[in-house]
Amino acid sequence: MTSTTPTLVAAAAALNASKIYGKDDSEVRALDNVTVDFAEGQFTAIMGPSGSGKSTLMHCLAGLDTLTSGKVFVDGTDLSGLNDRELTVLRREQVGFIFQAYNLIPTLTALENITLPLDLGGVDVDQAWLNEVVSAVKMESRLTHRPSELSGGQQQRVAVARALASRPKIIFADEPTGNLDSRSGAEILAFMRHAVSDLGQTIVMVTHDPVAAAYADRVVFLADGKVVDEITSPTSEQVLDRMKKLGS
Amino acid sequence: MSSPVIRLTLRGVLARKFRILLTVFAIVSGVAFVSGAFMLTDSVKTAINSLFEELRGDIALEVRTPIAFGDEATAKRDPVPAALVSGIAAVPGVSSVEVNIIRESTIVKPDGKPLKTSGPAFGISWLGQDGLDGRTILDGREARGPGEVAIDKASAKRAGYVLGDKVTVVGPTGKGEFTLVGLTGTGDTSGGGGASVCAFDPATANTFLGAEGLADSIYVGLEKGASRSTVQKGIATVLTSKYEVIPGEQSAKETAGAINDIIDIFGKLLLGFAAISLFVSAFLIFNTFAIIISQRLRELALLRAIGASSRQIRLMILGEALIIGVIATAFGILGGVGVSKGITALFNATGAAFPSATITISTRTILASLFVGIGVTVTAAMVPALRASKIPPVAAMRPEMGFTALQRSKRLFAGAATLLAAIALLCIGLFVQPGGAIGILGASGLGAILLFLGVASLSTSFAAPMSAAISRILPFPIWPMTRSVAGRLASRNAQRTPRRTATTASALMIGLALVSTVAVIAASVQKSFKDRLQGSVTADYYVTSDGFQGLPPAFAEKLAVLPELGEVSPFRISTAQINGESKQIGAVNVEMGDIVNVKLTSGSFAALGKGQILVHRDPARDLALSVGSSVAVTWQNGTTSNLTVGGVYNDSSIAGNWLVSIDVLSQASTAPPVDFFIGAKIADGVSIETARIAVDKVAEEFPSAQVQDQAEFQKSQEDQLNQLLFIVYCLLIFAIGIAVLGIANTMALSVYERTREFGLLRAVGMSKRHLKRSVRWEAIIVSVFGATLGVAVGVPLGIAVSIALPESFVNGIQIPINTIVVVLLASIVVGIIAAIGPARRAAKLDVLEAISAI
């Protein structure tokens, strides 16, 4: 067994995590006995070809999806023991999300979207922190706009601010720049980098873009549902190189 | 509810204004009929109560004969001798005493035709404005001699009479000509709530109205300062126990109550209809919410992902339903004012002269409307809300993982179980008939609701194959829609979401199921009626009244002496108690035996002449009666006649269940006689033409009489049934209208949903025309599916009800193939209408925008 006890400093961890879709002949092992941890205060990128299980790993770590076997932990809590209500509270308080697209509720303004997790939990907004977060993503002037009145990059900035607003233990980002042009994408990645370096946030990002991965402190490579490699302090060339190897 | 939930709810409603408007509209109509029914009955009742209180004027006490049972609506009181007046006048404290005579009197218009009224046509004895009752003179003066009459202003105006005109009035004793000397009113109104009133002086009333020394009751006024209860006791001591003395307002209340009962029946009809339209609306609401939720799948999943609990999602959806319910109820109550006013106007247009009532909106009306409007909306949204709260958060990123649909086998089981329960309840309600009318209506009503729900649930399972089948035979089997791309797309789309197709079709299914149920029952009743009429009616002439109170006995007497006619018999109806239950007893002459064939199984019709009673076989069986047994009949005045059964008969369609001779009735009760109808046969050797001339000549004197030969009688009876059916169909069409709205709504939503798909189709070269056609075909598939289901449910239901109906109504099942074919064809039109808006929207889509839509 390759099992190691996750370190206490890990913001999130998976232990012998397996996820199987379908049955018998049509069985697909999306995750195959994955053990990995994500240190607090680090920006980690998860990479891998399509179907490597990177999104599934993230969904399970975030409590959005459940494992077939194994365990996942967020801040030392074993998610497999939580019921729907406890998972909801965990997502609201410990976890932040940034999706590829469709991040915002179209009927709410930018500000309302940012404070939504706090409002849902009935938590008072820490105004000073909110101001800091909003200014970090440079959205001060557009707070009263609806998502339809914002550009794609602006929408993602609002999503970053929302993820930061509740000061979660960990933020999961699923291809956050996938739908953006390179300039807007770079902006978003810079905000995320800033959140980790200067605000002490932990971020786990799924991406297939080597340039995006280069913003991370560490890159974990997945293939066929298994962790196959990792690099610390990567450059985009290094990442590209590894990806090419995985693909071959 | 926490504040973000409220905010999300409100924004959710605002973002979907159009869809919600359609949903609101469906509920509004239901609520409007509920509140309208209450408002109408409340307002009219208030108006009628105040009208009768107004009419009561200074009548402090009234002397009349008591009735042993029953209420004022069916009461036939024996008269009071007018001679009692002097004795009553002598009682200390009495200021004045008047005889009250109210009999039927029809005003004849200048063109010789009777003035039609929507209420009774009265002739009364009236002393004028100084008399006790509350009638006032608006113009001219009261009638003072044998040749004079005062008429209520509204009727005089409608008939076209002015003061000084010669007016022909037909009363119980025949025709009379009077000079119009006064126009009367009541309080501030110029009419009597749809009734026409001819006021004569007491002496004229006594003779012309045929009272002959008898009064219907006696009015008593009090001296100033006299104690009413003391005077009441005083009068009671001078009267025998045959009479009672009651406070004037009690009598007014009873009379008003009798009319209020009729209005209540009308109100209940409206409520029943409101229930149907609300039930149909519930399907529409359910469907709209189900679709809105699947469209918002990602949004709801996103909310779940960032920390909204499933409870918060549920509350949000229910909150939206609540808002819709409140808005709809508010509009519904406004609509209720419209419904109530509209119906009043409709009735007034036909001459009803409803007392001009201000619309009364009672707390009960508002509470009932809120309960119904909000209750139906929130209940209908319950299942979609539950579904929404079960959306897994991961669907925010993987929408394909959205809904875990109820397993097909599970739904089949639930649907089948509901259907079985429904059939069981219907059978119990219709055939076991527990607990009287309430049991029958309750069990079969609940059964019908479950039946619709069960079929709606099951129909999901065969929506796809049925849609495929429909698209293969429409418009023609040799040229099915599947031969064109537009048709194929429509067919696939209807099959793609069987659940939606089924729910949308369900609303139409209910409406058309009710229509076909009614159609089967109506056809069966009509056929049975016709068969029976042909077998049992042997009369050459039928005389009925188009007024409210039937025919004056003078008519039958005049017909009886015509040499051109053979047997003549009137038919009177009286109420009596037999074995403790209230029954309608028919009274006829022995000659009726030759006019109507009641199909005696034992005894003879001639037994009537010996003062015996004839019984239909059903009550005879229930009470174990046969020829020679004795029946105690208690009349309304308390007299009991012990009658011997002289015969048992089979056919109650004309004669009812009990028959006595007119002599027996008039010996037992001295209440003023009124003939319900008169049957007559032509004398031997007289030609039809000659007889008709003679009969028509007599009939001229009685303008409210309608003389009909067999064919005419049959036709008029059928017309009456058709009129009733027409009203029922009108109401059901409204329910179908809501169903059309439902289809339109669903189509609009799916057009919206398929924006991208349509954009793609247009981009690869589909024309606007084809796109429109595709949407239209889909709507047609859905409506034909709904209509087919409706007929499949409605026809058996109609057959079941027809079998359950007593044999006197239905003795054979008739399935109206024509009506059913029309219904099915009409459903195609329904689909076309429902698709107008959505098809236009689909065609208007901008190709580029549509493709880039997410």
TrEMBL record, chain A:
Pfam families: ABC_tran. One of its GO terms (molecular function) is ATP hydrolysis activity. GO terms for cellular component: membrane protein complex; plasma membrane. InterPro entries: AAA+_ATPase, ABC_transporter-like_ATP-bd, ABC_transporter-like_CS, ABC_transpr_LolD-like, MacB-like_ATP-bd, P-loop_NTPase. SMART domains: AAA. Keywords: ATP-binding, Nucleotide-binding, Transport. Residues 15-243 form the ABC transporter domain. The keyword Disulfide bond does not apply. PANTHER family: ABC TRANSPORTER RELATED (PTHR24220:SF685), IMPORT ATP-BINDING PROTEIN (PTHR24220). This is Unannotated protein. It comes from freshwater metagenome.
From TrEMBL, chain B:
Residues 21-236, 501-696 form the MacB-like periplasmic core domain. GO terms for molecular function: transmembrane transporter activity. Residues 273-393, 730-846 form the ABC3 transporter permease C-terminal domain. Its main location: membrane. The chain crosses the membrane at residues 20-40, 269-294, 315-339, 359-383, 412-432, 438-464, 502-525, 724-752, 779-805, 817-836. Keywords: Cell membrane, Membrane, Transmembrane, Transmembrane helix. The keyword Translocase does not apply. One of its GO terms (cellular component) is plasma membrane. It is found in: Cell membrane. Signal peptide: none annotated. InterPro entries: ABC3_permease_C (IPR003838), MacB_PCD (IPR025857), Macrolide_Exporter_MacB (IPR050250). It is a multi-pass membrane protein. Belongs to the ABC-4 integral membrane protein family. This is Unannotated protein. It comes from freshwater metagenome.
